[in-house]
Each structure stands twice: as structure tokens, then as C-alpha cells.
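Methods — Computational structure assignment.
A single polypeptide chain was analysed. Its primary sequence is given first, followed by the predicted tertiary structure written as C-alpha cells.
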Amino acid sequence: MSVSLDEIKKLKELTGVGLTDAKKALVEAGGDFDKALEAMRKKGLTKAEKRGEREAREGLIESYVHGNRIGVIVELNCETDFVARTDNFKSLAHELAMQIAAMRPKWVSQDDIPEAERTRKREELVASAKADPKNANKPAEILDKIIDGQLNKYFSELVLLDQTYWKDDGKTIGTLVKEEMAKLGENIVVRRFARLELGVSED
């Protein structure tokens, strides 16, 4: 199994392990970068995960207005004022604001989704699945897996960190943030955001 040197280096940067260990992880994951990163995350090997335990109280508030019709304010936190003033950090905040303007997320992370909303959507999907004649003879466990998949897809499109990055459909916003954490050497937290669209009431 051959893996690219660029991906090995990228995994090395994100995890802090040596090139040999990074290559081994990619080979074991069949060349799937996200799978290799997740495997190392579960082992507690990623530097970004370790940094995520550190407190982030500095940062900045970025604003972005698109065509005088859509406005976004996002709070992005880091550990030190020094990092908050770097071009990389400011650029990340701007990219997040543009992502929010374009993709209309409702929550920052999965943890922010109200349980009542999860329950409501699940019940809606269950009712829809039961009403579909194609599912009449499917075992309950198979139907549950289908509904779980639909539920995950639905919320991933509404959760900022799970959304596909508008500039690169090969990564999520969560991955983008972790990459910047690796570059800047600090914990970075997307704290909150607000999105306004002219004439539209945000739910």
C-alpha cells in the first residue's frame, strides 16, 4: 500500500508523531487520511486534541457582510493575544464568517443541538420511513441504521464544525480548525456566531 509523502507529512504535523508512525497509520487505514487521523485521535496521539484541553480566552470577533444582505459575526478564541493578532488566525476567522454566510449553519458543534430537536427530527424520519412502501419488509435494525444515517447527514449540514469547507470539499470545518491549531500551536475554539439575512427570520 503506497501513501503520498504529502499526506504523511500532514498527518505528522497534526499528530506530532514521527514520519514512520504517520506512514504506518496511513497504511493501516488503507490510505484513508481521515480514518488514520481518527485512529490516532482515539489513541490520544493528536496534538490538536491535547491542545483542545487548554483554556482559550483570547481571540477576536470577526464580522462579514455579503452584498449588504447577509451579515455574520463570529467569536473565535485562542490562548494568547499574540496568536490572535497573527494573519493565520485572522484569516481563519474570516473563512469561518464566509462559511457561515454561505452555508447557514445553526449550531457550532453537535453538543449544541438541543435534545428536543434531535428527538423531533428522528420522529419525523421514522414516520417517513414507515410510510415508504420500500421499507415494508426491512428488519427493524436495518431501518434504524438507515434512519441514523439520515439523522447524521441532516445535522452534519447544520453544524458548523461538521460542514464541508466551502473552499475544499475534501475537508470539514472541524478539520480546518484542527489544522490551524497544529500550525499555531494553540487551542482554538469557535465560541459562537450570529447570522442575519435581510428579510429572513433565522430559526
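Note: The first helix runs from residue 5 to 15.
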